[in-house]
Amino acid sequence: MQKILAETTGEFALIDLSVGQHIAPHRPSVVLMTDFVIARTTLNQIAKIAELPDEAADADFEGFWLESGDRDLAISSFLSTFEQEDAPAAKRKGR
Predict the structure, then answer these.
(1) 7-50, pLDDT tens digit by residue?
(2) What is the domain partition of the chain in residue ranges?
(3) Nearest 5°: phi and psi at 12?
(4) Would you tell me how many other CB atoms lie within 10 Å of the CB of residue 86?
(5) Integer Cα distance of 24 and 13 in angstroms
(6) 35, 50, 58, 59: which is closest to 83 by C-alpha?
């Protein structure tokens, strides 16, 4: 199941009981893209920020959030950790 970084569109939290996940009211959260999340996105209660790899964890994002104190910086820093893993290694040319 796909993971995403998402946030509520207002000052409210959402709890997806199907998998026991929580979307925080004051910061983005790493969540599974369940039927609940899809439905709430369609109702404009959740805004999808980015798609994430399976190893992404909300606790890791929360660390970036607390350390940065800035929404955009936390998001870009968190996302950059996955870009580095996905980047192919540079090939050396033999002589």
Answers:
(1) 999 999 999 999 999 999 999 999 999 999 999 999 999 999 99
(2) 3-86
(3) -150, 155
(4) 7
(5) 5
(6) 50
**In what helix (H) or strand (E) does residue 15 lie, and over which residues does it extend?**
strand 14-16
> Taking the mean position of all CA atoms in its chain, how far away is CA 47?
11
**Distance, CA of 50 to chain centre:** 6
pTM (2 d.p.): 0.84
> From CA 68, how far away is CA 74, in angstroms rounded?
6
Q: What is the pLDDT of residues 68-82, one digit of tens each?
A: 989 999 999 999 999
Within 10-95, residue ranges assigned H as helices are 35-42, 58-68, 71-86
87, 10, 3, 17: which is closest to 48 by C-alpha?
Answer: 3
